Amino acid sequence: MSFSPDDFTYMARAIQLAKKGQYTTHPNPRVGCVIVKDNATIGEGYHQQAGQPHAEINALKDITDGDTKGATAYVTLEPCSHTGKTPPCVNALIEAQISRVVIAMQDPNPQVAGQGIQRLRDAGITVDVGILEEQARALNVGFIKRMEQGLPWVRIKLAMSLDGRTAMASGESKWITGSEARQDVQRLRARADAILTGSGTVLHDNPSLNVRISAEELGITADVKQPLKVIIDTKLTTPLDARLLSLEYNTLIFTQSHDERLKDAFYAMGAEIIHIEKTQKKGLPLKQILQQLAKKEINEIHVEAGATLCGTLLQENLVDEIIIYMAPILMGSGARGLFNLPGLEQMKDKIDLKIQDVRAVGDDFRLKILLK
Description:
Largest sheet: 9 strands, mixed
Helix content: 25-40%
């Protein structure tokens, strides 16, 4: 299929619209739609929040005058064909007498997965698929991975010095990076469905793991969504007075502990405890935990943890993306490193990565790294 320059222009706009939902659509995908007639845009919309109208419906509602008969709709994701919290979008497009629908990518959701495209074609509508697909997939990496693999997208966030250190030998690490970088981290937290850490980080740093940025700063009108807080805690050593437990937002703890009295105390604090049976010599089965989180409709996980948990996730091939904030400081050879990665002794053992993006954030650099 060959697409015209106008097709690329309108789909690029639809992708731009979809990005407006990056902090608010969980667990749904981010989707944008542009409706064009006689070489002019007559309606635009994006999915704003789960349970609310989808992008196509909002774009149709945006049309104040003019007939939609014969118009073209540009959508970043295949229109839904099933009834969920909202009616099928394909019905609305058919009823509007749209003559052509241009779709960036097919929906990986088994409830849709080509059925929306077929419904449109059965109604006599021309459907073209595949324009700017890579950019469309980037909008919904977590949703796509959850639908295709039953796992969430795992993003590790780290801050390091120029010599690759994350904390002094004493554990002191506040602050490696500047205020602009720390503010940028809040945006990463805000787009995540869950923030994952280990009990060691809770014991040492006593973090809140919440989003501390306003709706206005995020550019949204909805309330700021607080991610689920997830703690990997094999022996259930998280203190009952931990700061993250004092917040109103949900906390989920995975453990192997059988201490029912302690579990009851956590329940009283509002935390949920999930017991994981011991299946390996050391630590909890991380892939099984991620699968359970995917079943809870967690698309993207933001990891803020120590070198051991981050290293284990990496060695078990469970990491999709690493965000590193690199500060122009030196912390010395005695300071702590990024990952605990035992067993890497020869070059053939190295872990290959791909640097996708490097940009300045205040006085620091942010590296976006993907696993090959």
